[in-house]
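Ops channel
N.P.: pipeline sanity check, posting one input/output pair.
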């Protein structure tokens, strides 16, 4: 494992997706096959958050329900994608200890398996988001043009984060609880049940909220779709985080990935 490259291993895993993408799909299919309602349980949480919780908070804050529901829907599904990816990355090496000890030491396979699972959940929520956008008076179809590059930036950022927490999680099992607590706390500082205009840039509350990466991940994807203005700082923040994060993740992976078979 000495001197393994994070970028090299990710590239090799992407060229050989048989393990991480097909096994993830098989896991989801077999999991919901045992349920009477099957994949309905995938659609239920985002539907409830978007239309029930979203409607409640719209009324509570005096927003138009038809405008707030898509805000809530997109914010929730993006937050869940990041949360699932990072939470499960903390334990992915331990869960695949048998594979690792058997010599399958390209750890990016296990990181991508977690991200693929979160990605499948995200794809399954498309009908819910589409329904929310259909009732939205602020939906901007041209904003969908930005969806591909913004989602790519989101995926790349989650990629380096997953690598770091997977390596640390292989050594310290408490990281799972720590990341879970951070993500729950981060939910309150992400514009999902509230809007970015409630915490203007330049104010103390605005500065605290904008220190949260999830704030920018959600706004980067959602704002153009809902016809909202995207702060230039958000674009700079996400790109800057991408560069710094990948440099840090590459160093961590090169230095510590070789110890993972011992730790698990």
């Amino acid at each position: 494992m000495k001197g393994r490259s994070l970028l090299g291993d990710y590239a090799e895993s992407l060229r050989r997706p048989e393990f991480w993408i097909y096994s993830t799909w098989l896991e989801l299919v077999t999991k919901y096959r045992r349920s009477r309602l099957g994949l309905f349980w995938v659609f239920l949480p985002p539907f409830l958050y978007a239309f029930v919780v979203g409607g409640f908070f719209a009324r509570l804050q005096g927003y138009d329900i038809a405008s707030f529901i898509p805000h809530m829907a997109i914010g929730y599904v993006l937050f869940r994608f990041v949360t699932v990816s990072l939470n499960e990355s903390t334990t992915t090496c331990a869960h695949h200890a048998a594979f690792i000890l058997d010599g399958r030491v390209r750890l990016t396979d296990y990181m991508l398996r977690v991200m693929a699972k979160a990605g499948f959940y995200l794809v399954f929520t498309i009908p819910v988001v589409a329904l929310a956008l259909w009732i939205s008076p602020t939906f901007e179809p041209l904003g969908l043009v930005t969806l591909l590059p913004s989602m790519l930036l989101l995926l790349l950022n989650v990629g380096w984060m997953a690598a770091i927490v997977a390596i640390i999680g292989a050594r310290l099992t408490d990281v799972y609880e720590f990341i879970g607590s951070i993500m729950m706390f981060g939910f309150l500082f992400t514009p999902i049940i509230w809007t970015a205009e409630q915490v203007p840039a330049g104010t103390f509350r605005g500065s605290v909220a904008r220190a949260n990466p999830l704030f920018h991940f959600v706004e980067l994807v959602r704002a153009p779709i809902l016809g909202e203005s995207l702060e230039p700082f958000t674009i700079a923040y996400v790109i800057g985080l991408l560069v710094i994060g990948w440099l840090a993740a590459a160093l961590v992976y090169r230095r510590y990935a070789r110890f993972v078979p011992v730790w698990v």
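N.P.: looks fine end to end. The chain has one domain: 6-31+39-263.
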